[in-house]
């Protein structure tokens, strides 16, 4: 069938993310993928290759069709592909849980597997509420977070996303009302004696003090707010939040779904601040992008409180939790990452992105250019024309997915220096061509 035929059938049937059926955004037909490149149907029976500068929404860190990850899946299929986790267990889940406890911050000792990053945040919020009930603090039913955040598209995570500038303002009134402090001042390198930082810290302390009897936990993306704007902030802000949680008896939930597994230059973004969470949410790169899998990890103190509290159990249980295929490929992906010089490679990617995107800051209509780890961002002075910008970058051999006022890249770690140069050149030339 021609590409037009497939796309027509797609338009009749499928609802793509954040899209309207009345005015659908263009989609491209993928014919294959290998390494860091997608093979897209060119509309005339052939294909065109493009570097996937998005790592398939930030998860495909080792690229496509990696032989080690392919083998992990095939080997597990020969045993069994799925089994319920209620009343049963299996080796891949046990081994993966051991590995995650080994590589995550030391206080985290217990693992709950779930289907997606959003669900891991749901579970984290649920366990925080159960924890406070177990401690006799039944009035603590709210989460404290900051403006500018994004934590997923299911209902509990939506409630801790930015309520005004986020993507879920249509649901105002239907969501649990949470407690929001101001967005941390921008800048990873902002010193902790900076007036803006001190003002923010004071504001957060005041909010925490005023509503401490209602707050169960603090929920934030450490160091880098992702879908809320690719917005980096100082590690000192995390230290403030850890101190507030300890002072008032809140739990600290860190959403490292986007930042984990080395994306910001350390294995976990919290390492930049030298603090540990009570609850950690991970996903995306956990399986190297092969299958949907996420996890919530918590401390022994949290787990014991919930287990000995009313109900005596964590009240959650996804059908596909701890799927053996996903656990097997996750183990292989983690081993593959840690066996290599991932920190060196992320630093090299960061240097390449910085060098390649720096000239873009001088272009008309560009508000800011910023790089943190393997994340490169061009922020325009107004909303990006997503269709035109995507087309312009793709004509130069690169796939990106701009949003709001941002043209950005979170490339696979296996990109070469030449790949990074191609990505940054394509973005620079497209921004010059399209603007905002």
From TrEMBL:
It is found in: Cytoplasm. Its main location: cytoplasm. It catalyses: (8S)-8-amino-7-oxononanoate + S-adenosyl-L-methionine = S-adenosyl-4-methylsulfanyl-2-oxobutanoate + (7R,8S)-7,8-diammoniononanoate. Pyridoxal 5'-phosphate binds at residues 117-118, 255, 318-319. Keywords: Aminotransferase, Biotin biosynthesis, Cytoplasm, Pyridoxal phosphate, S-adenosyl-L-methionine, Transferase. Substrate binds at residues 57, 150, 284, 317, 401. The keyword Zinc-finger does not apply. Its cofactor is pyridoxal 5'-phosphate. One of its GO terms (biological process) is biotin biosynthetic process. Pathway: Cofactor biosynthesis; biotin biosynthesis; 7,8-diaminononanoate from 8-amino-7-oxononanoate (SAM route): step 1/1. It is an enzyme of class 2 (transferase). One of its GO terms (cellular component) is cytoplasm. Belongs to the class-III pyridoxal-phosphate-dependent aminotransferase family. BioA subfamily. Catalyzes the transfer of the alpha-amino group from S-adenosyl-L-methionine (SAM) to 7-keto-8-aminopelargonic acid (KAPA) to form 7,8-diaminopelargonic acid (DAPA). It is the only aminotransferase known to utilize SAM as an amino donor. This is Adenosylmethionine-8-amino-7-oxononanoate aminotransferase. It comes from Kribbella sandramycini.
């Amino acid at each position: 069938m021609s590409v037009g035929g497939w796309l027509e059938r797609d338009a009749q049937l499928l609802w793509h993310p954040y899209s309207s059926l009345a005015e659908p955004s263009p989609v491209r037909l993928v014919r294959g993928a290998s390494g860091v490149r997608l093979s897209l149907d060119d509309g005339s029976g052939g294909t065109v290759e493009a570097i996937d500068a998005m790592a398939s929404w930030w998860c495909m860190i080792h690229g496509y069709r990696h032989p080690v990850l392919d083998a992990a899946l095939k080997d597990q299929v020969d045993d069994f592909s799925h089994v319920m986790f209620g009343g049963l267990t299996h080796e891949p889940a046990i081994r993966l849980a051991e590995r995650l406890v080994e590589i995550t911050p030391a206080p985290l000792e217990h693992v709950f597997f779930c289907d997606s990053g959003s669900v891991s945040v749901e579970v984290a919020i649920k366990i925080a509420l159960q924890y406070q009930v177990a401690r006799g603090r039944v009035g603590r039913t709210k989460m404290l977070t900051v403006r500018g955040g994004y934590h997923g598209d299911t209902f509990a995570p939506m409630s801790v996303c930015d309520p005004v500038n986020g993507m879920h303002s249509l649901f105002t009134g239907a969501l649990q009302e949470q407690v929001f402090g101001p967005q941390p001042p921008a800048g990873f390198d902002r010193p902790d004696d900076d007036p803006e930082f001190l003002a923010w810290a004071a504001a957060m302390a005041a909010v925490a003090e005023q509503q401490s009897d209602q707050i169960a936990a603090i929920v934030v993306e450490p160091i880098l707010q992702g879908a809320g704007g690719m917005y980096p902030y100082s590690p000192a802000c995390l230290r403030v939040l850890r101190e507030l949680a300890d002072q008032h008896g809140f739990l600290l939930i860190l959403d490292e779904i986007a930042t984990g597994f080395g994306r910001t230059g350390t294995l976990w973004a919290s390492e930049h601040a030298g603090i540990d969470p009570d609850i950690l949410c991970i996903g995306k790169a956990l399986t190297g992008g092969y299958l949907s899998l996420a996890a919530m990890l918590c401390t022994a103190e949290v787990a014991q409180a919930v287990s000995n509290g009313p109900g005596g159990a964590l009240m959650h249980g996804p059908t596909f939790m701890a799927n053996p295929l996903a656990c097997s490929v996750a183990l292989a992906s983690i081993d593959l990452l840690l066996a290599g010089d991932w920190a060196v490679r992320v630093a090299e990617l960061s240097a390449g992105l910085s060098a390649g995107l720096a000239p873009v800051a001088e272009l008309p209509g560009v508000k800011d250019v910023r790089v943190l780890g393997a994340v490169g961002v061009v922020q325009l002075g107004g909303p990006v024309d997503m269709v035109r910008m995507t087309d312009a970058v793709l004509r130069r051999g690169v796939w990106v997915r701009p949003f709001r006022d941002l043209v950005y890249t979170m490339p696979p770690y296996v990109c070469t220096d030449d790949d990074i140069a191609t990505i940054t050149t394509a973005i620079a030339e497209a921004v010059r061509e399209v603007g905002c």
